[in-house]
Amino acid sequence: MNGGLLLETAKWRDVVELGLCMAIHDVCNDSQFENCTPLDFANFLNVREEAKSIAVLPKEKLRVCYMVFAVASNISPRKEAETWVRLFLQRCGIARSYYDKHRSDICAGHATEDNRNYRKSIDEAIEEWRSRRRIP
User: Fold this and answer.
1) How far apart are the first and last CA of the chain?
2) Which domain of life is it from (predicted)?
3) In the chain, N or C terminus with fewer CB closer than 10 Å?
């Protein structure tokens, strides 16, 4: 799936489900991304062309990479998830090479306590969303 088709599709359906957008917004708003409304964040996360630009806060690219990795694992089909990753990283100003190198750094044994806590918050938000949807 090319980026243009995903953008066209995103005009009428969410790539990232609204419930997941809200769960991620609760964790990341005003922490990894500048403060925004839940609706603006959902549109931004779904790479909508008309979405308000939401800046990644300084020194938060590493955590955003993990969030992208975690969210992408909940998008299907897989090919659509890969396209979403590429488009969302572009929107955030994060190079694909940086993402590929660092997306799982906060899972490593040498990760700081703050990064481990962030990972736990993202994982718990996704798990709570999945349990509400009854996804195994």
Assistant:
1) 27
2) Bacteria
3) C
Note the pTM of the prediction, 2 decimals: 0.87
Tell me how far apart the alpha carbons of residues 60 and 32 are, in angstroms, rounded to a whole number.
5
- Is residue 48 within 8 Å of residue 16, measured between CB atoms? no
Task: Give the span between the Cα atoms of 78 and 15, in whole angstroms.
Answer: 11
Q: How far apart are CA 117 and CA 8, in angstroms?
A: 36
Tokens, residue 79: 């090919």
pLDDT, one tens digit per residue, over 83-119 is 999 999 999 999 999 999 999 999 898 999 999 999 9
Answer yes or no: are the C-beta atoms of 30 and 66 closer than 8 Å.
no
DSSP state of 59: T
Is residue 73 within 8 Å of residue 13, measured between CB atoms? no
Tens digit of each residue's pLDDT (9 = 90 or more) over 25-56? 999 999 999 999 999 999 999 999 888 899 99
For 116, 128, 130, the CA distances from 57, given in Å and listed in that order, are 19, 25, 27
